[in-house]
Amino acid sequence: MSELDARGVDVRFGSTRALDSVDLCVEGGRILALVGPSGSGKSTFLRAVAGFVTPDAGTIRVGGRTLVGDGVPVPPERRGLGMVFQHHAVWPHMSVAENVAYPLRRARWNRVDREKRVAEVLATVELGDLADRAPDTLSGGQRQRVSLARALVARPEVLLLDEALSALDEPLRASLRLMLRRLAAENELTMVHVTHDRDEALAIGDQVAVLDRGRVVQVGSPAELDASPRSEFVARFLHDAACVAGRMSGGRFRSDDGRVSVPAAALGFPSGPVDGPAYLALPPDGLELVEESTGEGVLPVEVLTSLYGRRGRTVICRSGDLELRVLTPGVDDALPSTRGARVRRGFVYSR
Ligand code: ADP
After folding, report:
1. Which of 15, 16, 180, 345 could form a disulfide with 286 if both were Cys (CB 3.0 to 4.6 A apart)?
2. Which residues, listed in sequence order, are joined to residue 68 by a DSSP beta bridge?
């Protein structure tokens, strides 16, 4: 069980700061999900840990061993890490078992030990029956499990997953998420799982780190991130929150356009108390559609359309220039009498 500890990691590509003083720590046997928009630096972090990118500053340690930071960085093949990419890099001319055995061959394991270990790992990823098959006879999900087995076979200290499930369709993706969680728990394996998919990050991570333009903007358990997004960016990115500019004063948020006034009691202040210019972030599950268009904490809205979802229908509304999403459990498609959205829960940040 090895801890991964990255401190002050900087990576620059010309004038682009791909990683900016990144501190991330993953306890041994736990999964860190790294999520953020495209270009936020997720893959660069993984590549820096794997050794394909050399940071301009910072240290990276695994299990107390320094990979980057003390003189010459340890080369990728000596880092003891496993990596799985989005597109399964499985060799077509080798059987499933030969693919998985390859890292052990390179490490000069003897045949008996190699065959034993390959059988063990194939059983773990539920591919025991397919050991002799050619990769082109497998489904996408099975091929991705071959990549996973190959990354696991040499008992890596840390497994790095770069959008490893992103090319798969549901429900296969959901079953591989479960497999990764089981593997981490049973093998006490430390994992970093990079994804642009917010729901996947929250489902899979023991801890979730949100990246924005090369910076870690929040790290916490999925429940912490859900309950308390620490910035307007995280509220928008993780919660699909709409943001209204206004002011906090006298125990009340008032929007600049005068359309909304909400008492502080209905609001959360995840980044600390706010007084003066502020943003109010309104997540879809913090709003309720109502018939009236005015009143305490009510914004006048015009319903545009709605999307069906298992947790309820998401109604898309407009209020002035603002587009709002409102999660309405059990509500039907037609909402003719809706004229307002009442704020039940919102987050306020200084601006
Ligand atoms: P993500 O994985 O979150 O989509 P990346 O880590 O791939 O983001 O990229 C972060 C930033 O670094 C982006 O602005 C990207 O264009 C830039 N970048 C990544 N790799 C290189 C490279 N090899 N050369 C130049 N710029 C790069």
Report:
1. 345
2. 60
